[in-house]
Specification:
Distance between the termini: 63 Å
CATH class of one domain: Alpha Beta
Radius of gyration: 23 Å
Largest sheet: 5 strands, mixed
Number of helices: 19
Strand order of the largest sheet: 1-11-10-7-8
CATH architecture of one domain: Alpha-Beta Complex
Number of strands: 27
Shape: globular
Strand content: 15-25%
Length: 552
Amino acid sequence: MSPRVTGPARPLPDSIGIEEFMDRVATDPLPLADRYRLVAAARVLVEELYVHLPLKRARYATDPVQRLRLLERRVPALSELQFHAELAAVFRDLRDLHTVYQLPAPYRGQVAVLGFLVERYQDEDGTPHHLVSRIDDSLRHADFDAGVELELWNGVPVERAVERGTAAQAGCSPDARLARGLESLTLRPLRTAPPPDERWVLLTYRTPEGRTRETRVPWRVRAAERYRGRDQDPVPTFGAHLGIDAGNEATRQAKRALFAPESARRSVARAPRDVLAYSRARARPYGYLRIFSFNVASARRFAEQVAVIAAKAPAEGLVVDVRGNPGGNILAAEAALRVLSAGPVAPVRFSLPTTRAALALVRANPAFRRWTASIRDAVETGEPYSQAFPLTDPDAVAEGLPHYAGPKVLVVDALTYSAADIFAAGFADNRAGVLTDGGAGGGTDDDADGGAGAVLGTAASTGAGGANVWTYDLLSVWLPELLPALPRGAGFRVALRRATRAGASIGVPLEDFGVAADPLHRLTRRDVLGHNEDLLAAAAALLDGRRGRSGG
């Protein structure tokens, strides 16, 4: 006999049903002419300004330019949802979360949510388990609560459902796609993909006591962020130094609103706790710094906040955790790294494509002057990329601030992306976590471990996003004739300048490769349902070993 199907006692707060949302969409369809404008703009971006096009063509055997040509011919035959899905898929198959199509209003600023999170851990024999780790109060009923283990998802074994979700993700490594596939089970930013096909999900789950139950949970739609009563994108439109997965930043803010509402209420003021949190490690003499995001307006102000934390962190060691960090302000990430390093750091360098549009951009924008000569000369040299230059001097941004000289361990995962990738690369390449005779950071090529053991990961590498991303709106300020205005707030984000690493990894691209974790810690049940106790114990053990090697 099948378990009785139950549902939540009340709807998720501050949300509307997906059917009501889709009814709103249907009342005002996008005209055919606007669809053609979007496809034409996408072709210009991909052909002329997308810096990773040669890499993606070689690595994934994809031809987005030809796909856009074909889409242009099929536009009249597609429904509106089919059109949005097809255009989004062209960008998704690049496996680049920087380079995306952004759907117009009313999708803008909205996230489809179920109201709970699913996290995964494996037994020692590799058997996966999928647990509800966080849940909104409105959904708790009939034993459905944090800690239940999912068995079936709409009648499909949950492991297979995760595989299906993973196949639809743009991550460039198996771990990155798996992490995003898990998150997409319950959170989907509508700015970068159409809404879920289903109106609800049917879950079969097992309680901690071993009872099998079923529940039906409806999809709801809510704003990723509200500012003065208006829904808005959670990522700035005109930031020139951004490196961020805008979709993951939207889901991060939705998670904060659902599962940490006190923090979410302070988000309008961009309180430090929105992006930073600090505590002392339990039963060990170490500090613990969590950097949730680098999505901040002022790099200097952010560096000052990190410096305040660094000043009170114990000298014995610091665990710096950037798991789930979708990136943000690249200058803020590199300035924070400088504060957390005993000596100077070599910043990541950036280069542009050597196209006609890129040359027009660097000639129009004085801030790009350094890149002009190498793009101009590419006609003769045949180089696909310009010379590489840093975006900033981290020492200048962090000038006058105290620095943390103690040993450090960095904790990363497959959702560590973009500016957080850059932070992790700088941490590894500048040996910021290495404990030498003179203290942490500023290691030399003679260091025995070369930085090994300083980057602890729950996946084999970070998310592998390596670029400075610009929006279509920002590019159109400098290239108005090439990039005319788009309809209804639709847009694109594109990887404009690719990032290459410094130090011993000088010249190595971050895109698609990321930063390797050493060592690896697979999450446990205690990590998922508790407060990452086993993960933090592994980080502390690394610091214990470093102190032992130095006689501390």
